[in-house]
UniProtKB/TrEMBL annotation:
<protein>
    <submittedName>
        <fullName>Glycosyltransferase family 9 protein</fullName>
        <ecNumber>2.4.-.-</ecNumber>
    </submittedName>
</protein>
<dbReference type="InterPro" id="IPR051199">
    <property type="entry name" value="LPS_LOS_Heptosyltrfase"/>
</dbReference>
<dbReference type="GO" id="GO:0016757">
    <property type="term" value="F:glycosyltransferase activity"/>
</dbReference>
<keyword id="KW-0328">Glycosyltransferase</keyword>
<dbReference type="Pfam" id="PF01075">
    <property type="entry name" value="Glyco_transf_9"/>
</dbReference>
<keyword id="KW-0808">Transferase</keyword>
<dbReference type="InterPro" id="IPR002201">
    <property type="entry name" value="Glyco_trans_9"/>
</dbReference>
Length: 339
């Protein structure tokens, strides 16, 4: 996605009782978990709240403001990482926000915490243990999980503060054509058509992408008649990307990590969904976000080729929604599930 830059949170100190939370996934997963992270921290004010997450997410973990320390894990894709490098006393409390399988529960159980909260194995004596629901939105899923353990949690508590660094393109419309998998990557030619339409309407457009997406971003920019100064592919730190999105007039992308940055900053957005419904990973309710999706059977979000439902979204419709958001001062109709 981008260079994540310096200034991570401190490592765990072990000087206080510890709450260790496991959520070792990607940027979007981290940001969708912010309401739950905040709830855990409030519930244990005398503890050091530590998040086990990939080392590369260090600046993003810091930016959430939701934990005290970061315990870096290996870059392990979406697999459960080993936690055997934990060198402190057993955590007082361990919280599995990683998934519902036994692997994440077992990784935390190996540390012999005093208390372990997980979907995979409810605590002994729990009167009504939470049950995993495949049709539940990610933010709601983990807040409901915590509430079942007596921890108040609000899925709407997802906003994060913008960074102190300036935006490299304040007030621009930001297009992010990349995604971790081809299934969630709308064709470059369609992004170029949207960019060209926005430029014809007098809007400044910039394109962002990670180090491996330089060719993709160049293709979008070339197709839209844009210059190189408006392409940020693999050149931004996490804070710079966050500032760019926080200061944007509009953010347009697929269902990927930077879209969740737009949600977290309250930046007006148009998000294109394909293999996964926005009912599971979409933006929060409100008038500044639009989710475009053709209903249909779920696909594989990690597949190599664009999902058929994603390909049913045409550039004209996306451009209409983007211009509508801009023309109404960054507001659109409520989140829609139909394109």
């Amino acid at each position: 996605m981008t260079h994540l830059g310096p200034a991570p949170l401190p490592r765990p100190t072990g000087s206080r009782p510890t709450v260790l939370i496991l959520r070792a996934l990607g940027l979007g997963d981290l940001l969708a978990g912010v309401p739950a992270l905040r709830a855990v921290r409030r519930a244990f004010p005398g503890h050091e709240t530590v998040l086990a997450a990939p080392a590369s997410l260090g600046p993003a973990v810091r930016a959430t403001g939701a934990v005290d320390a970061h315990f870096p894990t290996e870059e392990n894709g979406r697999r459960v990482p080993s936690l055997v490098h934990w060198r402190h006393a057993p955590p007082d409390v361990a919280v599995d926000l990683h998934g519902n399988g036994p692997e994440s529960h077992d990784a935390l159980a190996e540390l012999a915490p005093g208390r372990l909260l997980s979907y995979a194995q409810p605590e002994p004596g729990h009167p009504a243990p939470p049950r995993w629901r495949a049709d539940e939105h990610e933010r709601q899923r983990w807040c409901r999980f915590l509430r079942s353990h007596g921890i108040p949690a609000d899925p709407g508590e997802l906003r994060i503060a913008p960074p102190a660094v300036p935006s490299p393109a304040p007030g621009a419309v930001v297009l992010h054509p990349g995604a971790d998998s081809g299934a969630r990557r709308w064709p470059a030619g369609r992004y170029a058509a949207v960019a060209a339409g926005l430029r014809a309407a007098g809007r400044r457009v910039v394109v962002t992408g990670g180090p491996g997406e330089k060719r993709l971003c160049a293709e979008v920019a070339e197709g839209a008649g844009m210059g190189g100064r408006d392409v940020f592919a693999g050149t931004l730190t996490f804070d710079q990307l966050s500032a760019l999105i926080a200061g944007a007039r509009l953010f347009v992308s697929g269902d990927t990590g930077p879209a969740h940055l737009a949600f977290a900053h309250g930046t007006p957005s148009v998000t294109l969904f394909g293999p996964v419904s926005p009912e599971l990973w979409g933006p929060p309710p409100g008038r500044c976000h639009t989710a475009l999706w053709h209903p249909g059977p779920p696909g594989d979000p990690h597949a190599a080729e664009p999902d058929p439902l994603l390909l049913r979204l045409d550039a004209r419709r996306v451009l209409e929604r983007a211009l509508g958001a801009l023309d109404h001062g960054g507001t659109t109709e409520e989140v829609t599930a139909h394109a």
